[in-house]
Amino acid sequence: MPVEGGTSSGSASASSRHPKQKRKAHSLSIRRTNSTEDRPGGLLRGEMLDGQDSKLPLTLRNNLLDLFGQIEREFENLYIENIELRREIESLNDRLTGDGQTVDGADPSKGVLKAKASHSTSQLSQKLKTTYKASTSKRSHMLQSKIGGIAGPCGFSAASWELWGGDSWIVSSFKATAGSRALCQLQKEYMGHRDGIWDLGITKTQPVVLGTASADHSALLWSIETGKCVLRYAGHAGSVNSIKFHPTEQMALTASGDQTAHIWRYMVQLPAPQPQPDVTAPPDDDQDSSDREEGEVDAEGPCEVPTVRVATATLKSHQGVVIAADWLVGGKQVVTASWDRAANLYEVETSELVHSLTGHDQELTHCCTHPTQRLVVTSSRDTTFRLWDFRDPSIHSVNVFQGHTDTVTSAVFTAGDNVVSGSDDRTVKVWDLKNMRSPIATIRTDSAVNRISVSASSRIIALPHDNRQVRLFDMSGVRLARLPRSNRMGHRRMVCCTAWNEENQSCNLFTCGFDRQAIGWNINIPALLQEK
């Protein structure tokens, strides 16, 4: 599976090194009269400055102008790619509109085209995810606001690219019913990030707060009851791709596109709760809300809050983007997952690298630890996930789970002996740790699945999708509900992550997405299970 509204040449080069993200050749060319290639070899840009008083040596000035020329050519290439990708999307939408691909029960003969369209959308979505999660440049965010539509190697700003919301032709296979809306209600919106939110988590110590990790290079802590930001972590130089909290202490673990993971301490003071407004909306769930501008989501970011800028410990052993990190049981060790195809095990007290877990054939996308045992599961783009066993200090065994046909975006432990995995192949599979040859349940959906979560007591799986939907299933694969979404509520871009907090009476499920917001939901779990 995780980086910011715009990307610099540094993030562009990171994207180009990715084995599946090679930039294709372009047939379109734009002739520019002020380009150095259009001038005779003897003419330099420096001649444009003749008559101007310059104290720079001629050699230095020519070197600077040559560098400016390279920058201009890079932006020219981005502009060309921007035009081509827009034309491809318009062409694809025209084809789908002409063929009437809108709702369930369509002509079966159109299934091949629909599959191709979904695959194309998945590829574009994956390309943007890759580019954003590798972002490490602070200049890129400034470029986004100045340049507008040109925002990164893919040529799209998050505000203008409709595919982040699945576009108008991606529709849900299930219709929300009045009953599901009564069982699943939006309670609070947490808005303040300046770019998409990749991950979220809930603290395990008092006071209980919500944490979010964003492509805007920051992690924010929120009051669950008031929706106000109470602390900001700004120690990373790249996209913050995940956030996890220590089981017993006020410490957070974040992973970043700057190739590091940080451990940092926090102290928060919660504001007094205030009466919350009614955020419910009429049942117009299928209305498209993509015309609502991203800038409406508090574009100026959170108000002045305490900011932590220095980490307690910095873990630096990876040679690529650190995509996820988690605490092992007890909180004395942490594990990190990276695009360098390795997962690293560190001692928290010394920041020492204990083990490097290798074996995956492609980049890692996620890692998760067991709540009570020394077990780690890592997910990868190689379509597998691996179970690493550290219960016996003398023997570190590994088991490979094969069952998906595309990138495994996440795999998480349940309270029992199960692992649940989600994939870009639009399936979620439930596995038994005692019998790993085949899944015991398979959930098939209509959109790629991102970072899933399973509630501890009721064992309900929350699925975040690329097409803006969030669905709830039980461990047997039975669909329980779909969270309500309309033009005035719910996510407006892809949903990146879900997290349960069953101890909270008001908000027991949280979701976040690339529309720059996190949402707290109230799920009536007893009634939901009774309706099943």
TrEMBL record:
From what superkingdom does this record's organism come? Eukaryota
The biased composition feature labelled Low complexity covers: 1-16
Localization (cell): Cytoplasm; Nucleus
What GO cellular component is one of the record's annotations? cytoplasm
Residue ranges of the region described as Disordered: 1-48, 272-302
User: Where is this chain compositionally biased, Basic residues type?
Assistant: 17-26
Q: WD repeat positions in this chain?
A: 190-232, 233-264, 315-356, 357-398, 401-441
- Ranges in a coiled coil: none
- Acidic residues composition bias: residue spans: 283-301
Provide this UniProt record's keywords sorted from A to Z: Cytoplasm, Nucleus, Repeat, WD repeat
Q: What is this protein called?
A: WD repeat-containing protein 37
